[in-house]
Each structure stands twice: as C-alpha cells, then as structure tokens.
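Researcher: Structure prediction, please.
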Amino acid sequence: MDEKTNKVPQATSKRLPLYYRFIQKFANSGKERVSSQELSDAMKIDSATIRRDFSYFGALGKKGYGYDVRTLLEFFRKTLDQDEATNVALVGVGSLGNAFLKYNFHKNHNTRIVVAFDPNAGDGGTIVNDIPIFRPDELEKRLGEYHVEMAILTVPSRAAQEMADRLAALGVKGILNFAPVRLSVPEGVRIHSIDLSVEMQALIYSIRNDEKST
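Model: Predicted structure follows.
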C-alpha cells in the first residue's frame, strides 16, 4: 500500500479486500460505473461507511456520477499489491492447518502457502497438495529458502509465543494467529489474531440481541 494508507483505520483496512472482491464482480458483469448505494446493497455495508472508507484515498468518485468500476478495480489492485505474490508459511498442520493446505489462496488472492511446518512431518519432510511440510526444528533452515514474508499460525496456545518469536527473528513481516492467546511481537511485525471461540460468542450475542429487538 502507498503512504496514504498508513493513516487508514484498521477496520477500513480489513474491508479493502472485500471492496476489491465485489468491484471485480461488477467489472466481470460488464458494469461501467457503480454508486456507493449499489455497493452497499451488494456488500451489506452502510453506504456512508463506504464513502468514508473511500475518502481516505482521495477523490475516487464524482458526485452525481458514482465510481468508475475500471478505475476502482485498478486502484484496489495496486493498493492491495495484487500483481505481486506474497509467500506464506503455515505453522501447524492440524485440522485447521489442513484446511488451509487444501484451500488454494493463489487462485483468488495474491498470497500462496509455499511451505508448512508440523511436528508430525517426519524426517525429511513430506508433501501435501504440492506443499512441502517439514518439522519445526527446520524452521530456521527452510524459511529463507522459500522467501517467506508472512505466516499463518495454527499451533496450540503453549507453543504460539515461541513460534511467533522465531518467525519474527527470521524476518517474517506479518503473522495471522489462530491460537487463542495474545502474542507479543517486535515493532515492525504485524499480527492479526482470530479467536474462533470469541467470534462465535460475538455471533451468538448478535443473534440473541436481534431476537430481543424484534
């Protein structure tokens, strides 16, 4: 992303890939321009939120005209670095890790899992869906070999901080953490944590709250 995106709120940053996905759909359908209300109807996001998000990046549209679809598509492609692939390491190949191995990021995104690590990999490693899997004690040896910039962490809580420390020391720039524990990383390393139990509880609360209001 360019320098302007440094001041973009995290909530807005998380919506950028969604905007890109839906704008791609509009472009593929042959639509030439789109309004914030049309985006709102398609994405189920308030149109005022969309206009505010877009305003962080300057004048992307024109009042009374809306947004040029091709211009938006090119803007978000460059902003999200869609033309440059990012190599990702998967650390932990349990049930969730296996699901990541089976999902081909590179078909729809600019990220690709190129190597994985798991204690059950065995001596010499193994290959699943064309992705090599090595034991964790080979992390320092293999990570640079595969030019990894980011990592997905799906290990037990007790091992998460140690693995995060090792990944950061090896120059990994970002970690997507699925372990239900708060991790500390050095300045310059981005970490996004997803606690599935918390997300489920939040969803249940929303459902119950909707039921009370009807």
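Model: The chain has two domains: 3-77, 86-198.
Researcher: Thanks, that helps.
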